[in-house]
Specification:
184 residues; alpha+beta; two-stranded antiparallel ribbon; 6 helices
Length: 184
């Protein structure tokens, strides 16, 4: 059974296309996926090395410290970082729990979030462009969300109705003809 379990674990780790490093309670590397080996330039003889001795090629706080913090708190730690090639990564560190619920180390996992970061950038630019267009309009404009709350208004609106953003934004738009008196 032990040989079968070892084979299963070895095959499972080898088949994952995700950088994962497992460390023991002493922060020494126990196992890593081939993808982690490629990305972090790990070789089989790195098993037993301190995770903090690894130079990952991206900015992170001390990996030993992060692992120790996760093992002590029993919580998950996540941070975003960018490597030298411009790829964005989410680093997750989780405590490694045994079947009898003891903490016996930590698991470091990296997920490529470059596409999400780029999509967020595109959305930010689009939002800013839309905001600039609304602001440039000479007529009063209210931007209403699907929940009937005012998201924004342009300068022309505030001038015409002699109001302030604090009196308008986030407020519910009630039914009726007079815009200013319908904001409750």
């Amino acid at each position: 059974e032990m040989v079968q379990l070892t084979n299963d674990l070895t095959y499972l780790l080898a088949s994952l296309d995700t950088p994962i490093v497992m460390v023991g309670p002493d922060s020494r590397i126990r196992r890593f996926t081939p993808k982690a080996g490629q990305m972090l330039k790990l070789i089989p003889s790195d098993v037993g090395r301190l995770i903090g001795d690894i130079k990952p090629g991206f900015d992170t706080p001390d990996l030993d410290e992060l692992g120790a913090e996760v093992m002590a708190s029993l919580g998950t730690k996540e941070l975003e970082t960018q490597d030298k090639l411009g790829t964005w990564w989410r680093l997750q560190i989780r405590p490694y729990r045994t079947v009898d619920h003891r903490i016996d180390g930590a698991v470091f996992m990296l997920t490529d979030i470059t596409a999400l970061k780029r999509a967020a950038e595109v959305l930010t630019f689009a939002r800013d462009d839309a905001r600039n267009i609304v602001e440039a309009m000479p007529n009063p404009i209210l931007v209403i969300a699907s929940n009937s709350r005012v998201q924004a208004a342009n300068r022309a609106y505030y001038r015409m109705f002699q109001s302030e953003p604090s009196e308008t934004e986030g407020k519910l738009l009630a039914a009726g003809a007079d815009l200013r008196s319908n904001i409750v």
